[in-house]
Write a structure and sequence with these properties.
The structure holds 2 protein chains of 2 kinds. By secondary structure, chain A is of the alpha+beta class. Helices cover 32% and strands 13% of the residues of chain A. Chain A has helices spanning 33-43, 77-80, 107-115, 135-139, 158-162, 169-180, 188-195, 209-213, 220-235; strands spanning 2-7, 17-22, 62-65, 68-71, 87-91, 98-100, 103-104. Chain A is elongated, with a radius of gyration of 20 Å. By secondary structure, chain B is mainly alpha-helical. Chain A binds chain B through residues 159, 162-163, 166, 193-203, 228, 231-232, 235, and chain B through 1-4, 7, 11-13, 15-17, 81-83. The complex binds iron/sulfur cluster (SF4) (2 copies) and FE2/S2 (inorganic) cluster.
Chain lengths: 236, 115
């Protein structure tokens, strides 16, 4: 199988380039893209990428696979090459500074995540044991808490490409709503006030690239819609 | 919270609501005009003149005019802040847009209510 990989070492290369590798895939096996990358690494140990859990849990191997963002470890090559010719093209997640090859600088992504204060705030006296939630209240967090911060969504969002320092991006906004929806959090008003400007939330143009790529099947666009609804309710 | 002084409303929510509201107004106005044209197969200048000389139509036209100005500004502002990064060029672009919006507004009012 022909594997084409984006190579860039800022210390040695003047410009990024694509390098091709011929990898023999064991017959009758549908490897994951990460397995193929590991085979490439055996051939050329200078190829750099992040990975850790190799089972879609840690979120470190988000990359652009044949034009679509996804986690290399849970994307089978059959799926990646479906409807295309038998070639695998791997690039770093788009729109972010490249540190080396497939490794990007996630600084801005984390900064936006931090900006939505991703932790529970509660200024009422703490109960003796724990703050309880009813099963219904807890159910509101489903589809939100599962995010592994892989950045596949935000780096596929054109609004995030153009304004990564002002638009929170789908991943951050999904988490913003996760804490807005949590009945144990008492800072709803402060959170909403922070999001009311023309960029943080409202730069989302409903393109839904984020929904299309999320490896966890989450729906940031819906969460963004809920935030808009809360902002609207607060002002009417 | 991201600060901005050039957007239309006080907040992102304002701009968002204005954009949607004006879109509805413009759609209704356009559909009405289209319907009028279809309902008058052999449209004469006098029909057209008659339509626009009634006060209700003038009010509706002014509403549509203001809507187009607001809608245009929010849209152009969004395009400028997405795609034009150098501050000077963006400022110039917004200035030209503002000038156009202003001219259209005054000119439009003059056409509707002028002698
Ligand atoms: S929402 Fe999905 S794509 Fe986005 S960071 Fe979370 S897990 Fe990744
Ligand atoms: S729906 Fe919004 S957040 Fe998602 S990709 Fe589109 S613009 Fe970005
Ligand atoms: S290596 Fe952990 S998500 Fe792929």
């Amino acid at each position: 199988m022909l594997v084409s990989i984006y190579r860039y070492n800022p210390e040695a290369d003047e410009a990024p380039y694509m390098q091709d590798y011929e990898i023999s895939i064991p017959a009758g096996k549908d490897l994951m893209v990460l397995d193929v990358l590991n085979l490439v690494k055996e051939q050329d140990s200078s190829v750099s990428y992040r990975r850790s859990c190799r089972e879609g849990v840690c979120g470190s191997d988000g990359m652009n696979i044949n034009g679509k963002n996804g986690l290399a470890c849970i994307t089978p090559i059959s799926e990646a090459t479906k409807g295309k010719n038998d070639k695998l093209v791997l690039r770093p997640l788009p729109g972010m500074p490249v540190i080396r090859d497939l490794v990007i600088d996630m600084g801005l992504f984390y900064k936006q995540y931090e900006s939505i204060k991703p932790y529970l705030n509660n200024n009422t006296p703490a109960p003796a044991i724990e703050r309880l939630q009813s099963p219904e209240e807890r159910a509101k967090l489903d589809g939100l808490y599962e995010c592994i911060l892989c950045a596949c969504c935000s780096t596929s969002c054109p609004s995030f490409w153009w304004n990564p320092e002002k638009f929170v991006g789908p991943a951050g906004l999904l988490q913003a709503y996760r804490f807005l929806a949590d009945t144990r959090d008492t800072s709803t008003e402060e959170r909403l006030a922070e999001l009311d400007d023309p960029f943080s939330v409202f730069r989302c143009r409903g393109i839904m690239n984020c929904v299309n790529v999320c490896p966890k099947g989450l729906n940031p666009t819906r969460a963004i819609g809920h935030i808009r609804g809360m902002l609207l309710q607060r002002e009417i | 919270m991201v600060a901005s002084i050039t957007n239309l409303g006080r907040s992102g929510l304002y701009d968002w609501v204005i954009q949607r509201l004006t879109a509805v107004i413009l759609a209704v106005y356009t559909l009405f005009l289209l319907g009028f044209v279809i309902a008058h197969p052999d449209l004469q200048y006098s029909d057209w003149q008659g339509l626009f000389s009634c006060t209700a139509m003038k009010i509706a036209s002014l509403l549509a005019l203001i809507s187009i100005c607001a809608h245009g500004w929010v849209g152009m502002w969004t395009i400028a802040t997405d795609y034009i990064k150098p501050t000077g060029i963006r400022f110039l672009f917004l200035l030209v847009t503002a000038a156009f919006v202003f001219v259209y507004l005054v000119w439009g009012i003059d056409i509707l209510w002028g002698a």
